[in-house]
Amino acid sequence: MKKPYILINSALTLDGKISTKKRKKIKISSKEDFIRVKKLRKRFDGILVGIGTVLADDPKLNVENTLRIVLDSRGRIPLDSNLLEDELPVLVAITEKAPLSRVKRIEEKAEVIKFKGSKVDLKNLLKKLREKGIKKLLVEGGGTVNWSFLKNRYADEVCVYISNLIFGGKDAPTFVDGEGVKEKQDAIELKLKNVEKLGEGLLLFWELPHPKGL
Ligand SMILES: NC(=O)C1=CN([C@@H]2O[C@H](COP(=O)(O)OP(=O)(O)OC[C@H]3O[C@@H](n4cnc5c(N)ncnc54)[C@H](OP(=O)(O)O)[C@@H]3O)[C@@H](O)[C@H]2O)C=CC1
Ligand SMILES: Nc1nc(O)c(N)c(N[C@@H]2O[C@H](COP(=O)(O)O)[C@@H](O)[C@H]2O)n1
């Protein structure tokens, strides 16, 4: 079974942060980049975010004919979150760690798929998404989710908008968080495909040389 084609898109400050140390929703993209992202989202069958992003940003990701997917092992998605309050489809990927009473409430508002283990099993999730007809998946963070998709070599391409802002701070989330590698030899090496100036920032397109199948 082929996995969906996967693009990670993110907006970073010049120092690689995706929010400040307060970890709240912050506009890092320029006006021009938000216009680009709006068009980009329409080209994907699915948009995926982690529960950290849902709790911090309460995103809408409201694009017609696109499935919104949340990685949420413990079923923490707020029942009044924008994703669960509108009419557009949402899939919440949970694990056996999610309390049953909570799952029932989420199921009233979204499709729920349950996986074994303590974190959502990406391989099996991607299989299920492909079976559901998701051929192109846009991953929009945050840093922990980006790490999972890169570490496992599931991402095919990466697009980052590098803004003219600097947030600093060791506790501010970065484009890729998670465990990280210990040695340079374990680094995830990408190939630069394109560079564009956009507003006061730069748009960079990268390709992963050997994305993994399922
Ligand atoms: N500038 C930008 O472009 C963007 C910025 N952001 C910012 O990023 C920050 C949020 O990032 P972060 O806190 O890292 O949260 P994430 O959105 O990356 O969500 C991470 C959580 O997802 C759950 N999860 C379940 N299964 C997996 C899996 N297989 N792999 C990875 N995660 C899994 C885990 O929680 P659990 O165990 O409970 O399931 C995990 O802690 C916010 O500050 C937000 O504003 C976010 C997106 C874009
Ligand atoms: N491209 C981009 N630029 C920024 O500056 C951002 N803060 C984000 N954040 C991502 O977009 C989601 C919000 O989407 P809606 O506007 O609510 O539809 C947010 O959750 C991040 O994934 N992206």
UniProtKB/TrEMBL annotation:
**Where are the coiled-coil regions?**
none
Output one GO MF annotation. 5-amino-6-(5-phosphoribosylamino)uracil reductase activity
Quaternary structure, per UniProt, is: Homodimer.
Q: Which domain of life is it from?
A: Archaea
UniProt keyword annotations, A-Z:
NADP, Oxidoreductase, Riboflavin biosynthesis
Bacterial bifunctional deaminase-reductase C-terminal domain ranges (all copies): 4-204
Give the protein name, as stated in the record.
2,5-diamino-6-(ribosylamino)-4(3H)-pyrimidinone 5'-phosphate reductase
One GO term (biological process): riboflavin biosynthetic process
The catalysed reaction is: 2,5-diamino-6-(1-D-ribitylamino)pyrimidin-4(3H)-one 5'-phosphate + NAD(+) = 2,5-diamino-6-(1-D-ribosylamino)pyrimidin-4(3H)-one 5'-phosphate + NADH + H(+); 2,5-diamino-6-(1-D-ribitylamino)pyrimidin-4(3H)-one 5'-phosphate + NADP(+) = 2,5-diamino-6-(1-D-ribosylamino)pyrimidin-4(3H)-one 5'-phosphate + NADPH + H(+)
| PANTHER family to which the protein is assigned, alphabetical | 2,5-DIAMINO-6-RIBOSYLAMINO-4(3H)-PYRIMIDINONE 5'-PHOSPHATE REDUCTASE (PTHR38011:SF7), DIHYDROFOLATE REDUCTASE FAMILY PROTEIN (AFU_ORTHOLOGUE AFUA_8G06820) (PTHR38011)
Recorded E.C. number(s)?
1.1.1.302
| Family assignment from sequence similarity | Belongs to the HTP reductase family.
Q: In which pathway does it act?
A: Cofactor biosynthesis; riboflavin biosynthesis
Q: Which is a Pfam family this sequence falls into?
A: RibD_C
